[in-house]
Amino acid sequence: MQNIPQVKLGIIAVSRDCFPASLSARRRRAVKEAYGDIYECDITVENERHAQAAAADIKAAGCNALVVLLGNFGPETSETLLARFFDGPVMYLASAEGDGDLFDGRGDAYCGMLNCSYNLGLRSLKAFIPAYPVGTAEEIAAMIEEFVPMARALLGLRELKIITFGPRPEDFLACNGPIKPLYDLGVEIEENSELDLLVAFNKHKDDPRIPAVMEEMRAEVGENRYTGVLPRLAQYELTLLDWMEEHRGSRQYVAFANKCWPAFQTEFGFVPCYVNSRFTARGVPISCEVDIYGALSEYIGVCVSGQPVTLLDINNTVPAEIYQEDIEGKYPVRHVETFMGFHCGNTACGLLKNPHMGYQLIMKRGLEPDLAEPDITRGTMEGDLKPGEITFYRLQGTADCRLKAYIAEGQVLDVPSRSFGSIGVFAIDQMDRFYRNVLIAKRYPHHGAVAFGHYGKVLFDVFTYLGVEDIAFNQPKGMLYKDENPYA
């Protein structure tokens, strides 16, 4: 993945002046030994000048994420000012007792963590505090390990530019969203017309790099009756690659939200799905239908998981006969907890069981219904999703410029879809209630990002750090949603 940050951690120990500073330093060294790859600042912070010096030392070492360790009770003012002096993702932890006597070797960091949290709030400083932020060196090392993907996402957003080519297709207001919350997150956005993209595409005609890109594509998808469209797809891929490099500006990372129908097919001569899938495999999401918050969600998932993600429609129910034949009695899920996630063909080959190039059946009906063989609707990447754990999630900007999010862990079942596109049969616990009381009740669009693994914990922490107050999840049976009818 070339489009996400590399996290370099630093650790600073803090000490209240009526406790031995040596206790904090010893506990810091123990964490360093337990975790390994973390820069250890040898300044133990007891006052504000120490905090300034320690933050400068961490920055000089090239660290972009900080762990603050309360080795004892800690100096509540200077320790919290570290979050201001550092200007990056910061995590606060406290050392548990048990590595010395309870007279001269007691640190009281359990108590000090309360004052630390209170002072962070007084100063309106953002910091990550784990669910139970007190532990031994080994337990703290495990908490730091969980902080890394979160820090990667936060750092990525600060250097992200979302490039769009629009406008959205008609009747796709569901993909609309105000861009003000993006600026609040530190994300830059560049909005363009699809005419700008067409002009750039035409300039790449006969680009000498096209044959090499076509060879890469052939090696990935092989040959079939639809791969005659590869020259156009290769030309388009080079267009986007060059645009990305020429327009990233001051930002390190890029995602796209692009128009993909219906005028796209008539003017460009293909559907862009396969190219989108190749970019996503590299860690550069390209969301469909100018879905800006879909692209944002995908990028967060790439940072959190370190793997390709995808964007799918929460699309259709699973027919009763498929449930009865392939799911009932084989998986512990109810029929209404299953659904199909689908998009035309935007999912990376590595996430599909039998990836193959196809054409967009729905578009062919409207754009070239009389042709026996598709032409301008070729270019999809199709196949059933590989089975395994997934997280369905989305960060969304509302009409009144607030951020909200949902997260639901589940799985892709090893069940043939018997359909077309990039598609999978999903199961999420209590999906029927989640669908009605979150997706419908909170007015989410039909697009959801999919990360391949269970990442609900870190996504929840990321959204919380970003200040998202409404984070919904698939609540278990017996836990009612706010407006859920208890007699339903």
List the helices and strands and how they pair.
Blueprint: E1 9-14, H1 21-35, E2 39-40, H2 48-60, E3 65-70, H3 76-86, E4 90-95, H4 109-122, E5 134-135, H5 137-158, E6 160-166, H6 180-185, E7 188-193, H7 194-203, H8 210-221, H9 230-247, E8 253-258, H10 263-268, H11 273-281, E9 286-287, H12 292-305, E10 310-316, H13 320-327, E11 338-343, E12 356-359, H14 361-367, E13 378-384, E14 388-397, E15 403-412, E16 422-428, H15 431-440, E17 447-451, H16 456-465, E18 470-473
Parallel strand pairs: 1-2, 1-3, 3-4, 4-5, 6-7, 6-8, 8-9, 13-16, 15-18
Antiparallel strand pairs: 10-11, 10-17, 11-16, 12-13, 14-15, 14-17, 15-16
Helix pairs in contact: 1-5, 2-3, 3-4, 5-12, 5-16, 7-9, 8-9, 9-11
Explain what the structure shows.
The structure is a single chain. The protein is α/β, with parallel strands linked by helices. The chain has 2 domains: 9-156, Rossmann fold; 159-473, no CATH class. It is 38% helix and 21% strand. It has 16 helices and 18 strands. The chain has helices spanning 21-35, 48-60, 76-86, 109-122, 137-158, 180-185, 194-203, 210-221, 230-247, 263-268, 273-281, 292-305, 320-327, 361-367, 431-440, 456-465; strands spanning 9-14, 39-40, 65-70, 90-95, 134-135, 160-166, 188-193, 253-258, 286-287, 310-316, 338-343, 356-359, 378-384, 388-397, 403-412, 422-428, 447-451, 470-473. The strands form 3 sheets. Strands 10-11-16-15-14-17 form a 6-stranded antiparallel beta barrel. Strands 2-1-3-4-5 form a 5-stranded parallel sheet, with helices on both faces. A hairpin with a 5-residue loop joins β14 and β15. α3 (76-86) crosses α4 (109-122), α5 runs antiparallel to α12 (292-305) and α9 (230-247) packs across α11 (273-281). The protein is globular, with a radius of gyration of 25 Å. The model has no long low-confidence stretch (mean pLDDT 94).
